[in-house]
Each structure stands twice: as C-alpha cells, then as structure tokens.
Specification:
Distance between the termini: 26 Å
CATH class: Alpha Beta
Low-confidence stretches: none
CATH superfamily: NAD(P)-binding Rossmann-like Domain
Number of domains: 1
Helix content: 40-55%
Largest sheet: none
Mean pLDDT: 83
Shape: globular
CATH architecture: 3-Layer(aba) Sandwich
CATH topology: Rossmann fold
Oligomer: single chain
Structural class: mainly alpha
Number of helices: 2
Length: 86
C-alpha cells in the first residue's frame, strides 16, 4: 500500500477489548485527522484448522476477535461520529 502512495498506520491491539479499540481509533485519528477506512484482519494463526475438527472452545477463540472486533470497531467509530455500519 505504501508503494502505491498510501499512508498506513499499523496498530497492534486486542480488538476483542473495547479499551484497546478505543485507543487505536484515537491513535489513528490523532495521526491522520480523519479515518477513511479500516482493515480488520483479526485472527489467531495457531488455531487454523477446519471448523468441523474444532471444539466449541476453539471455535469461540477463533470467532471472538472477528465478531467482537467488528462490534468494538463499530462502537468506537460511532463514538467519534462515524460507524462501520452507519
């Protein structure tokens, strides 16, 4: 993306934690002034496997950052006047 002229800010955070998400949105707003997009690439690589071989606990661990991360990102951006799904 940078090679194409985009300015990118990589932030490592636990998107399942709403305080981490609030902090990363604030960091992004402080750095850029505005946010025009978010790439939400949550996952836990050591838990990759077919879903039919996973226990319920493993499925929960895989889905939590995706589901809660999306929810927390939406809530944090809504607080600042824009939401992922508004």
């Amino acid at each position: 993306m940078r090679q194409q002229g985009a300015e990118v800010l990589y932030v490592t955070a636990d998107v399942g934690n709403s305080e981490d998400v609030d902090s990363l949105i604030q960091q992004s707003k402080s750095h850029f002034g505005e946010i025009h997009g978010i790439i939400h690439a949550a996952g836990v690589s050591e838990r990759l496997a077919y879903s039919e071989t996973k226990t319920p606990e493993e499925m929960s661990a895989v889905l939590a950052p995706k589901v809660w991360g999306t929810r927390n990102l939406d809530e944090a951006t809504k607080k600042r006047g824009f939401g992922l799904f508004s």
